[in-house]
Amino acid sequence: MTARSTTSRQSSDEIAALFHDAAQRAAAFRSALPSRSIRPTASADEIEHSFALPTPEAPGAPSEILNSLAERAEPGLMAMPSPRFFGWVIGGSHPVGVAADMMTSAWGQNSAMSYATPAAAYAEKAAAAWLLDLLDLPREASVGFVTGATMANFVCLAAARTRTYRKIGWNIDEQGFIGAPPIRILIGEDAHASVYAALQYLGFGRGSATRVATDAQGRMIATALEAELEASDTPPIVICQAGQINTGAIDPFEEIVPICRRFGAHLHVDGAFGLWARACKDRAHLAIGAEGADSWATDGHKWLQLPYESGFAIVRDEAAHRAAMSICASYLIEETNHYNPKDYVPELSRRARGFPAWAVIRALGRQGIDEMISRHCCLARQLANRLRREPGLSVLNAVNLNQLIVDFDIDSPDRARAVREIVQTIHDGDQVFVETAEWRRRLILRVSITSGETRLEDIQLLEREIVNAWRKSLHHPLQTSRQAPESEIHHATA
Ligand SMILES: *Cc1c(COP(=O)(O)O)cnc(C)c1O
Hints:
- With 494 residues, this protein is α/β, with parallel strands linked by helices.
- Helix content is 40%, strand content 11%.
- The strands form 2 sheets. Strands 1-7-6-5-4-2-3 form a 7-stranded mixed β-sheet, with helices on both faces.
- α10 links the parallel β4 (236-241) and β5 (266-270).
């Protein structure tokens, strides 16, 4: 029997033309960012229909497929890498990282083992060493290159689980939960939802953790943690945070670390974005002491500007990290004297995440990272100061990092709707993107300054858009009793 082939193999010229086409399309998208709509121009229903073609029967022509993909996708894309995107904590996908990612895809390395692809393994190992240096974390810690902070939390908490059960003579990775003695998990009241997801995936359950009280900024109260630890004799895992999603607040590690040490707790830090304060001279003091924790989850695709998907699971106890993630099969050729990326992540086959990380850290350098984080934090404070001057607007958080909670003085039974309408006005202007969030049971507008290219002019534009939308809302029937100011602001005075 002969193999059937309906198409001939693509020539190298054809492949080159295809890659060239893809690169040109990517470049066109990026250069149009300043002028294109920030939000998708087509509705989700329209996009759904445009993609849902009948199952393709015959092979298609490569260049037509790219064209057809771009035509369908582009109206449904949001300008997330735009410097005027402030909606969620989202990085700008640094061009060098994107380019390195394109090469990574073309190289097609299955990056589990150094035996098969030493380049993928050792680019990762080198990027990991830089990361530990930039964040000033224990240099002997191991780093798993995962898809984001959710998975980084998952991996770190798996290692925490391994370690904590070991202390009581239970091999959780071998024996599992059935019949296992109890352990205790403590978490701050204002932890990120993804940590609860990680606890769920690990079999602890979302509801099993004891919530520890936090202060007005969302920081764990060390004495409350201490009281909880004193009241129990089961071995604990403590989950802290660097960078609360709304306030940007960082837990007081200098107080928490000694308490965790005293009670023999594994201290994990969800530092998806806030851990990066440590890479910035003016902000490092905010996260001082975090180096005393046992594991740290952070993102590459937020403040470091790596393309998606990039997160780092950093664990002090390398042996526990490996034990929690181990996967063995007869066909895996393990050179134990070499670095094998699969030992630190849940996946076996995966892309070579070290290449874009290595490239972006080189492109920015320690100075570039320091400058960017410092700039974002200064811009956040400037914006807060300006918004606070506008009657009826307030900023509810202490702006030490890059996050702002903007509140509106709305005296209406339908306050939440009025806030949504203000945000809708901003969306309709399509100059900047912000979103609502909930803080202390109140709907607020959240601003996150994380995009690598965001500069003063972008923040001035954002200020105008927020203030004008607020002033406009004063004429709205939802807020009738108010006296609205006459004019809109057209320029921000520096
Ligand atoms: C974004 C974020 C996460 C989740 O990270 P992903 O990269 O979206 O998986 C976890 N914790 C905090 C504090 C975050 O800001």
